[in-house]
Amino acid sequence: MTNDLTFRNPIVANAADPWVLKHTDGNYYFMSTQFGRLELTQSASLSGLAAGRKKTIWAPPPGGRYSHNLWAPEIHRLAGKWYVYYTANDGGGDESRRICVLENAETDPLEGEWTWKGALPTPVPGLDGTVFMLRDELYFLYAGYGYFPDYGSAIYISRMVNPWTLEGEHILLTAPTMEWEKQGGMAINEGPVMLQRNGYVFLVYSASTTWSEDYALGMLTMNETADPLDPASWKKSVEPVFRKSVQNGVYATGHNSFTRSPDGKEDWIVFHALPAPAADTDLRSTRIQKFTWRLDGTPDFGIPLSDNEAIPVPSGE
Fold it and tell me: 213 catalytic, yes or no?
């Protein structure tokens, strides 16, 4: 962050799979993949996440089923408590990945103890779990491994009884069937994140492999009055809604989240990207930029901004 009310991307180095939650206490809560632990950052500003108050909130006991490859943590506030959903496995391959749940009853999630609530019993190995509420019903979405027909992952949805208990059938909503979803050697739909506005629910997901320069965002759209458990409720965009910019030198744009400016007047997308084609995935960094809305009520994410561009800080900072 600079002193002239602008900032430049990336805002957090070496931070893949970024998740940002803007809470009613005025703070932003930020998490990203740190592999062997879960770190939570509390920040009064969105552009200043790197300088926020940090704490490791979970380090798994070594050698257990969920002690390796802690990926894509998300923090949510549900029913007056904090919950973190993250992916972990035993050090093996995709077949051992599961989504785990932690709970904290404190007002400040950097205080108190995080309690292990278990690994969710998805019918296929899973990663990138998220939740959303619609008409007072809680739903769980995740990426599950399989053949569609190419090997990779697809996005499923299930109802939840409470923040750590699944109920009923797990329904496939989108599988990687188009060429832009199959770049990098696997067919991938992962990282689901929900956005609700203008009478619609948007399910934004990441497609292709995270190490491919063509990692990009796709989107499903549903009328908010429809049934999210019915695949026919969702319309899939045939092209990416956010992708690399060769001109601006930003590649592998994906695994995003959404938030708002401190005054609530602006919508911002949070995502990771690489600085060059074939760059090491350890260089994935967190970036933010404002997005707008089209006249038909759908989001316009634009193109990823260059690292050289001075960007005005979010409104209200």
Answer: no
